[in-house]
Amino acid sequence: MPSNLIVFNKPFRVLSQFSAEGDKTTLAHYIDAADFYPAGRLDFDSEGLLLLTNQGALQHIIASPDFKLPKTYWVQVEGDISDAALEKLRQGVELKDGLTKPAQAERMTKPDVWERSPPVRYREAIPTSWLSLQIREGKNRQVRRMTAAVGFPTLRLIRYAIGPYTLDNTPVGQWHHIEPTDQLQQEVTQFEQQRKSKTASPHRRRTGQKRPPFSDDKRVAGRNTGAQPTSRPRRK
């Protein structure tokens, strides 16, 4: 039986959804797997690794920053990125929605990746460079805003890895099933057990259990009890 996890190498300008939106290309153009949905998202103008699953708990663990699965990006920027800029990325960058968490940022040689269509527009007078950037949070368009904040706008953005999963052996536009790692499966089991435990909590009121009466001179904090029916006798 196929596993409940899919690895997909998303091309440039493809929406991370199956539902149509105007004339934009969606996942439905590439993936034919019933009941699978993206675990997290990847921007329309970004490329690379997207994980999909048909299991709710697994989707939550992969997508939620609470579980802190690191995401590694290969980023082509405008200009020859400096050591000072890399150090700022490592320490955290102040954005409009707050300070980013420290990232792992390293200069890298140009990776051996597919040609983008359409290609990145180059300016002869300005060089470009590549860096590997690993983050553990998910602010909107975070990587692009981080590199811009340190003076090196992003030209091309490829997500290479999510936790232990990478783009290795997955050509652009292709997908395949993959087994969850033992650690990820263990986190899924723990998450489901905690959810069941909360559902069965003894502090929750059982079905059919009556609410204890309140005296007239007391009200539930924050609750609008409304006017009492005039036909109802007042308690003594």
3D structure, described in words:
The chain has 236 residues and is an alpha+beta fold. It folds into two domains: 102 residues, Alpha-Beta Plaits; 89 residues, 2-Layer Sandwich (Alpha-Beta Plaits), CATH 3.30.70. Helix content is 18%, strand content 23%. The chain is built from four helices and eleven strands; from the N terminus they run βββαβαββββαβββα. Strands 1, 2, 3, 4, 7, 8, 9, 10 and 11 form a nine-stranded mixed beta sheet that branches. A two-stranded antiparallel sheet has the order 5-6. A hairpin with an 8-residue loop joins strand 2 and strand 3. The C terminus is likely disordered.
What is the secondary structure topology, with strand pairs?
Blueprint lengths: L4 E6 L26 E2 L8 E7 L2 H8 L7 E8 L4 H9 L2 E2 L2 E2 L4 E5 L19 E8 L6 H8 L4 E9 L2 E2 L8 E3 L4 H18 L37
